[in-house]
Amino acid sequence: MMATGHQVVGFTFGLMAITVLQGFGMVPTMPLHTVLYFVFVLFGSLLPDIDSPRSRLGNKFWRLLMLLFFTALAAYLFFPEWLNRYRDELKVFVMFMLPVLVMIKSHRKATHSLFFIGCLWVYSYVIVQWLDLPWFYLHGLLAGAFSHLVGDFVTKKGIPVFYPFSSKYVRFFFTFKTGSLIEKGIVTGLVVLNSWYLIMKIF
To answer: What is the pTM of this model?
Structure first.
């Protein structure tokens, strides 16, 4: 599925998640928090494609990673005392990044599996606890990431749902080609449906 399609599907999942969470009182109460919740949803909807330098998010991620690498190299060569000062912070950063780098070795592998969703939940849980963030941001991120898997699950290629335990690609019984007219029709339909839902909620 294309990036725009993933974001529309992600927004739809975000709406569904926030509707369900209302029953548990775990939703943003301020307009700014609601906007930030959907920012997390949209970010999560692109996150599994971080394994591809050609994707919208993956391209920025790899550029940032290279920038961090050359910054660390320059600090090691010219400012070694800076590395010593922030040694503990760098250890935490490397600890967090190492599993991510292992998972993004090829496109539509680890990041397109339920294993990735589980890892993302653990990462998000630690960050939410560490920074004392509201829980609905975590839910928005997970809803977006899960929507990405669902979006690719209905494409011709499918996804390795149970990776790394099984590398077999699984797909829905009804599939379409990425970027096809069917995908564009579904995305357009979801835009109309989401707009109607929001209008009904507001008025």
So the answer is: 0.77
